[in-house]
Specification:
Two copies of one chain form a homodimer.
Chain A (H helix, E strand, L loop, with lengths): L5 E5 L2 E5 L7 E9 L2 E8 L7 E10 L2 H9 L8 E2 L3 E6 L5 E4 L2 E2 L5 H4 L10 E2 L11 E5 L3 E3 L6 H4 L2 H13 L7 E5 L3 H13 L2 E5 L3 H6 L1 H7 L2 E3 L7 E6 L5 H9 E9 L8 E3 H9 L3 E4 L5 H19 L2 E5 L4 H9 L5 E5 L1
Parallel strand pairs in A: 13-14, 13-16, 14-15, 16-17, 17-19, 20-21
Antiparallel strand pairs in A: 1-2, 3-4, 3-6, 5-7, 5-11, 5-21, 7-8, 8-12, 9-10
Helix pairs in contact in A: 1-11, 4-5, 4-10
Chain lengths: 346, 346
């Protein structure tokens, strides 16, 4: 049983845990209806069997959170506590973890084939189930991924987006030595470059805004990534879109060599229309298009390893630490794709 | 030197060759301008160095020929003698050959990577250069693929479309045991099923016209292919379109299991428009799209092997033998996608 103020080892010092059994309410960011996001007091989550109550230490904000608030998302069920890039401390063991945000059935065909991220009855934290923009979250024990002591929580919570970029890279059959172009010099685009670099391919990054390239020059220099607003056409083995504009698809096909690979990593705005002649390029030049969505547990474990090694570079992608109550004011900025990573620190 | 009437072995007897050196003109089907197709007398082709003059015995008509006449095609240069599914006799050796219709540079990146069908300076017979709807054609010696005596010329000339279906299958990473759905129960769709069958995957075929399925029941029965106008959604590992409607793409994605493969084998009508939400299916369900165009020499050699073994079944796909001068009257029927294979017999 936990004492009133339970102390445990924590990176950079000790963390005082509120003993969860004494609490009935907590602070959270809840999306009640589309565009109606509230910082409010909610009931404490009650862990089911095989679940554990995690006290959140850090939760990173993602453009998908902003998109949910403004436009909805295929997997969003309302009302919902958002947040799926989570780092916290188990109220049972006191150990620190990041969380694979899915809950998969292990029985359907995608699960059996190792694609738990595509589980037929998938439940995602912050999408179908309440997520990490709260003081506590209830998570399946098997979704916990331990993190080493030397990895700070604000970096560790980026394991989820980094794992998604690993999934994009694996799904699109990127090979050692491939010349890869990433669309969108935001945090996800830059994490994609990191994954490509670690994999042994050569990452380039493109953004329509010249300012966007300049914003993270130090990160690019550290990893040897070239960022520009234009590159030579038909010069890349791989293109990966980390931006939701359909233009990334049309231009991406043009940037590919014959037999090149396009990874459809970011979904597109629904109302955009594409001409069949773009698809004919796929036919005539034997291009390949690969979809990628989410990540698996093992990809998150791999991401933790990369973050340990590259934490100094990755820290350059953090724009600011914010408080939970600041989230509603920050989301519109994230939606505009002009910021780097905001981390909610509890 | 050839005698005045040179005799040589030929399937089913002997063929009397007109000695080419004495002829200055020949009959041909020439596309002069869009929609203006003429049966006419033209100058005999003059083989360049490393080329040989082939006397055509059979040339199959393809929907692409009809499309060129009516709508043009990316690789078409006018005026042009059409025809790229060619079987004939070398006026040098008297041996029978089918012809790989490409001329590739062997130096560009696709050529060096084994994708000679995507050669940067590709010249295709019946597209960029004069083809086989004529009494004679000049072809590079290295494009000749010998055919065994037991294979009749009207079947052998189908090596080219069959090789294109093999290329589609290889390009789209079809695996042994994959459940594959082919869109369009025309001759190319049915040859695709044959290629899939030989490869060890399980072919199904779909056509919006119930009559189309009934037309080749005997072929389907021989190969154990099921044809219908509708199947269960999300039940196929692979979809391959052998029909130019954009609808095959949208429906195809829906027929695929998660992580399924769509082969964009037929190009789409240029003016069709697609909504981005169809592409989002690729993203969310990690679908894969593979382009396929043309074929390689070795795929044509493989096709010859398959045709030898399955010639009785393949004969069921031949609608009729026609004369060269009948071609202009036949093309509109082919464009309507209601016929099977027409073979010009010389």
């Amino acid at each position: 049983m936990l004492s009133d103020q339970h102390e445990m080892n924590f990176f950079g010092g000790t963390l005082r845990l509120h003993p969860s059994f004494e609490r009935t309410v907590m602070k959270a960011i809840q999306l009640k209806n589309m565009t109606c996001l509230k910082y409010m007091q909610v009931k404490m989550p009650e862990p089911a069997e095989n679940e554990v109550l995690l006290q959140i230490s850090h939760c990173a904000l993602c453009r998908t959170d902003a998109k949910m608030w403004k436009m909805g998302q295929r997997d969003l069920r309302l009302p919902r506590i958002l947040g799926h890039e989570i780092c916290g401390v188990s109220t049972e063991s006191g150990r620190r973890f990041v969380v694979w945000p899915g809950r998969s059935c292990k029985k359907c065909e995608p699960c059996r084939n190792g694609f738990e991220n595509l589980c037929k009855s998938m439940q995602i934290l912050g999408f179908h189930a309440d997520g990490g923009l709260a003081e506590y979250v209830a998570v399946p024990k098997e979704s916990l991924i331990p993190i080493p002591e030397k990895l700070p929580g604000d970096i560790a919570c980026l394991a989820e987006p980094l794992a998604c970029t690993i999934n994009a890279m694996v799904s699109s059959q990127v090979l050692l030595g491939d010349k890869a172009l990433v669309f969108g010099a935001g945090p996800v685009g830059l994490l994609t470059c990191l994954a490509l670099k670690v994999h042994g391919s050569t990452p380039y990054i493109i953004d329509i805004e010249p300012d966007r390239c300049a914003q993270t020059q130090q990160f690019q220099d550290k990893l040897g990534i070239r960022c520009a607003t234009v590159f030579d056409a038909r010069d890349f083995d791989v293109c990966i879109n980390a931006a939701p504009s359909l233009d990334t698809f049309v231009k991406g096909l043009d940037y590919l060599k014959d037999c090149g690979k396009f990874c459809l990593f970011s979904g597109f705005d629904r109302n955009d229309m594409l001409s069949a002649s773009s698809l004919n390029e796929i036919h005539y030049r034997q291009l390949k298009i690969f979809g990628a969505y989410g990540c698996t547990r093992i990809q998150m474990e791999n991401a933790i390893g990369i973050l340990v090694k590259y934490q100094k570079a990755v820290r350059l992608l953090i724009e600011r630490h914010i408080r939970l109550k600041d989230v509603p004011a920050i989301l519109p900025q994230i939606l505009e794709s002009k910021t780097m990573k905001f981390i909610v620190k509890f």
